[in-house]
Each structure stands twice: as structure tokens, then as C-alpha cells.
Amino acid sequence: MASEDNMPHPVCLIENVKGQLRANQEALSILSSIQQPVVVVAIVGPYHTGKSYLMNKLAGKKTGFSLGSTVQAETKGIWMWCVPHPQKPEHTLVLLDTEGLGDVEKGDNQNDCWIFALAILLSSTFIYNSMGVINQQAMDQLQLCTDQKEKEKQFNLPRLCIRKFFPMKKCFIFERPAPGKKLGQLESLQNQDLDSDFVVQVAEFCSYVFRSSKVKRISGGLKVNGPRLKSLVTTYVNTISNGSLPCIESAVLTLAQIENSAAVQKAITHYDQQMSQRVQLPTETLQELLDLHRTCEKEAIKIFMENSFKNFNQTKLETNREEFCKKNLQASSDYCSALLQDLFSPLEEDVKQGTYFKPGGYCVFMRRIKELKKSYYEEPKKGVLAEETLQKFLQSKEDLADVILQTDQILREKAKEIEVERVKAESAQATAKIQEEIKNQSDQLMKEKEKFYMEQFEELTKKIEKKQAQLREEQQKGH
Question: Is residue 370 predicted with pLDDT exceeding 80?
């Protein structure tokens, strides 16, 4: 969080470099570190009207913002000071002071218009400071920041725009703070040296700003923190640099893309970490894996919802789930294959020694196969491919079994015929069982998807209804 300790003075946020506006990287870095909601107060007005004095008062300092005649033309722009909010704990007050408008020595009218527009777009409270009445030029500049299709020149149009886009307004009138020569020494004067009415008016002004200024929000009611304000700054400045008009909707869309991308990555990272920690591959059943997936998936979606303001695209989680299913299948296959190799290695050694190539050898061979299958079934945590892997392994031994059987055929011809039929029946049963398991697993996945989509639909419906309610509430407050 930015505080008085790590930001003892203002820095330039948006500067004018050879006629082009650009965001200052130091200021953007400061915004990146502010995770608290921000209350953004910007002040705009003609030069030499006391804007910086008022902003220093809001910052609780006698000095800090010092623009006016002391600033070179190439640094004309917007200055920023981030301080703890004096009345809202865990909030940061972001003060934006603009270079005085209308100074022919430091810029042109187009530059003034963009500075004016940026101050409005970035702030949650906008202060227009003027000596005397607000003139037609000020009205035109206020209108510039609205989304009117034509920049008509009718006299009443700017006033209509102000009523529409600035529904809450407050006017303060300040006495002359000090006699003529002392005006240039305001920063060094004590309160007793100033006009007493002016001191009271400034205090009332600061109190009102602190009390009434809201947290900066964007479409949908999302609170803006430092990183989000940074995104708005860069989006608006880049838009202006490209020769286009800054648009709130496009800035929110850009922010949404940035925030949602980060939120998705955060959710996916959590999902992958939790699945890796909780799942011990291979799982005994597909349902065991799906149950763990559902738990981690809900946690990941919750994390996304807490860090975004758009709908969640579950495609990535589905892809990760499929990857875990593939890994689960591979782990089961690898483990079962290794287990079978270990269990059947003595049998293969006996085959090499010719143990089963004699009368009755085939029956002994098959009995040994049966014993080894029993040992295999008794081993735990073989996973979802336990049966399929076993059957593939046994199929690889069928040629060997045929050779042993042929050797035994002369003495046990009849036994061979019976045994062949039994082996075929067993193989068919195994194949049918595998197909049934595959179908069951597919059905489980389909039901899981349907359940997930229904839950997501209900959750997103609630979120949309909540946001609509927030929007209606904001609109009612605006009126």
C-alpha cells in the first residue's frame, strides 16, 4: 500500500513529452503496489487559481503539489499523490492535480482538453476550480468527456451533459486567502496569517471531500484498486496517443481481459496444485478421481469469481480434468504392467526351463496362470485399467499357451478342445466386461458434465441477478 512513508511527495502520473501524452512508469509502479480500494480525487481549472494549495490540504500537507510557474512546459500533465485516507481505514486516497489550463506558454488547447478528459475519466470525485464564474470554455471541456456522437456547438448542450453525467454536485465559495503580496507565499503562511473565513471554508471543503468521495468504481460496480487504476491510465493514454477518443467501455473491456486472464491463471494454478497434492495416481475407480476433481474445481471457480468480474470459462478446467484422467489411466497402466511383469517372471523362467513341455504340462501351466491372476487381483491400488491391462497381458501369452497345448495335444486331445472353449469363453467375458466398464465410465463422465453445467448455470444466473440489482441500485442513487 502506498503511504506517507513510501510516497512523501507527488509524482508525475501523465506527462507531455514533445506534444504526446504518456504515463510515467514510476507512478504506474506505485499504483501496482496499492491493493486497497482507491478514492480518486482530481482537480482541474485555469492556472494560478489555487488548485495545488487545495490538493495539499487534502493530503494533510502544507507543501507537495507545486506546479504553476515552477513546472517546465514539457512536464505539463497530471500529478499524483497517494496517501492513506484520513476517514476510511484500509482505503487509499489518490489525489490528481492537473497543470493549469489555458496557459499558452505550457501547451495548447488540445492538450488541455485531453488533460481535462483524463481527470474526469480517472476520478471518482472531480473538482473544477475557478476564479469567478464558470465560463463557456469550461462547459465545453466538461462536455468533451461525455459520449456524445457529435460535438455540437449549441449553447445548452454542455449544460444538459453536466446534469446527466454529474448527477451529484456541490459548490464552494472561497474568500481571498490573503492580501495581494502574500498570495505568492501561501505555502509558508500560518492559519493566523490567512483570512479567517478562508480557513473555515477550506476546512469545510476538505471535510466534505473526505466524507462524500466514493471509492472509484467501473461498470458492474467493481471497486478499483491500484493495479486497476493503472490499467485505466495506460488504456486511456494509449487510446489518446493513437488518435482516438478515450472510451470507458473499451477501458473496462481491456481491464476485464487483464483481470480475467490473471484470475483464470490463479484458479488453474490452485486446481493443479490441489489435484497434485490430493490425488494419488492411480485411483481405484474413476468416480474417486471425479470426486476429487469436483472438490478442487469448486475451489478454483470460487477463486476466479473473487478475482474477476466476468463469467468463468470452464474450458481450461475441463482440459485439466481430462489431462488428470489421462495421467490416471497411464499411471494405472504403468503400475499394472510392472506388477504383472514381477508376478509372472517366475512363470517365464519355468517356461525357459521346459517345465510345461510334457504330458499334462498345459493343465499345470494354466493352473499356475490362475494362481498368478489371483495374486494380481489381491494387490491394491491398481487403478481403473487393472482388468484391461491384465487381459492384454494374458493375450500376449496366448501364443505360448498354444505351443504348450500343442505339445500336450497327443496325450490330452480331448482336454485341449474343452480347454480352448473355456479360454475363449473367458476371453469373451473379459472383453464384454471391459466394454461394459468403458460404457459405465463414459456415462459417469457425461452425468458429471451435465451436473457441472447445471450448477454453473445456476451460479452465473445468481451472479447476473446480483449485478443487475447493483446496477439498478446505482442508477437509483444517481437519480
Answer: yes
